[in-house]
Amino acid sequence: MRFLSTGSVLTVFLILATAARTEDLPRSGQPVFDRVIELVNANFYDAAAIDRFNAAARAQINSGSGPRSGARAPAQATEAITSVLANLGVSHTGRFTPDTIDYFELSDIFRFAIRDDVRRLFAPDGEVRYPGIGMVTLAVGGRRFVSDVYDGSAAKKAGLLVGDEVLSVDGLPYREIGSFSDKVGRSVDIRLRRYRDAEPLSVRVEVERLRPLPMFEHAIEQSMVLDERDGRTIGYVRLWTLSTRDGLDLVAEALSRGRLKDAEGLVVDLRGRWGGGSADAAEFLVGGTPTFRLVSRRGDVTLANFRWQKPVVALIDEGTRSGLELFAYTLRQNSVPLVGERTAGALLAGRAYVLPDDSLLELAVSDAVIGDDLRLEGVGIAPDISVAFPLAYAAGKDPQREAALRVMGQLLDAGTKGRTIPSSEPAMTR
Q1: Where exactly are the structural domains of the chain?
Q2: Which of 60, 203, 254, 296 could form a disulfide bond with 258, CB atoms 3.0-4.6 angstroms apart?
């Protein structure tokens, strides 16, 4: 007789137990909805929320508008999935469809997690691409406004500004992906309103095929500028995400011997799109180890380790989330002044899954605890200096950035290391 090892017995037991639980899950017969239920039950980080989640799923199934087969199945499933996931009440959890920019950007960020599907989804080479102009919008009061213009993008070059109201693209209502499909290499006519009650403007922008992570890397590099004011030279860089391979290396190189090397102080903009990155990403701004280079026999120099030793001011808002939020927390712990608005309170570990209709499920799979018991999820970090940013009809004005530059000027005039601005409210609660 062949005996199973203790580990094998445990494995079999877990498989049987999982199968038993799977049979007890809420079932609608709609494959996308049911797969979401399975994935949440198997992977969501907070076991205490599962019973509540399943109860919400059963309520959706039993409701008159719940998920089911038939002509309206996709729309009903979308509404039902949105509702049950919202019941979990946490960040890093949502469903994304291919008619949104988020779908493509997250697919690139999570490309390793979806590696078995990425070549099929993004044929022929598995490189994530989408048609666009480098602009992101946000709905406010039933109208749609430009919320981000990526540095170096076609939208930036064409003169689109944050705060512009988007009225139409080629005479049709704006759609994130649909407005630019089949138009790569051609220009589109974007109708917009820059000032409240003003006459509309028309701007022509060339449509590109965008690869999210290389685009973000390029945007980080293109954002770097030196601002000369009141006899001071202040560097600025925007970290759109920490998920790129070489983004932080580009910043370190610029500060070490590139376009930002002559800066007396640095404003680092953490008002990003996505987080990502390693837990020690902020170390090059606050770490104690010295800068050093490797020099070859031929005299070739490689920057091996860089540490910025001059003043820093950081910009934060609700776009500061996940890894960028941890970055901001690290700066706060090192007394770097934070300017702007409270961060997102979105610090969990997420993972992506491809659903049966090729939509993407992002799911929080791990809690994130700083030290012994500090959690930023649902709390966020308050700025030291609070500055609002009304989006609608901002006409490209950025009061938060202007405030950060003023703070840096004050720190430089005072001759400090730039780390003594008092907080106007507690940074966070436990």
Answers
A1: 9-90, 130-210, 212-345+380-414
A2: 254
Q: What is the rounded distance in angstroms from the CA atom of residue 43 to the CA atom of residue 171?
A: 44
In sequence order, what are the beta bridge partners of 191? 168, 202
Sequence-separated (6 or more) residues with CB below 8 Å from residue 294: 301, 302, 304
State both tokens at 403.
């405030």
7-30 pLDDT, tens digit per residue, is 444 444 444 444 435 668 999 999
Quick count: other Cβ atoms within 10 Å of Cβ 101?
Answer: 20
SS (H, E, C) 14-41: HHHHHHHHHHCCCCCCCHHHHHHHHHHH
Domains 130-210 and 212-345+380-414 share a fold: no
Class of domain 212-345+380-414: alpha beta
| Band of residue 68 on the pLDDT scale cut at 50, 70, 90 | low
Predicted confidence (pLDDT) at residue 369 exceeds the cutoff of 70: yes
Amino acid at 364: A
Neighbours of 377 (CB within 10 A): 18
pLDDT tens for 235-258 read: 999 999 999 999 999 999 999 989
- Cβ contact 284:330 at 8 Å: no
Q: In terms of pLDDT, which residue wins out, 416 or 251?
A: 251
Give DSSP secondary structure letters for 192-210: EESSTTPPPEEEEEE-EEE
- Measuring CA to CA, which residue among 92, 60, 62, 97 is closest to residue 79? 60
DSSP string, 346-405: ---EEEEEE-TTS-EEEEEEE---BTTTB--TTT----SEE-----TT-TT--HHHHHHH
Choices 2.60.120.560, 2.30.30.100, 3.40.50.11220, 2.30.42.10: CATH for 130-210: 2.30.42.10
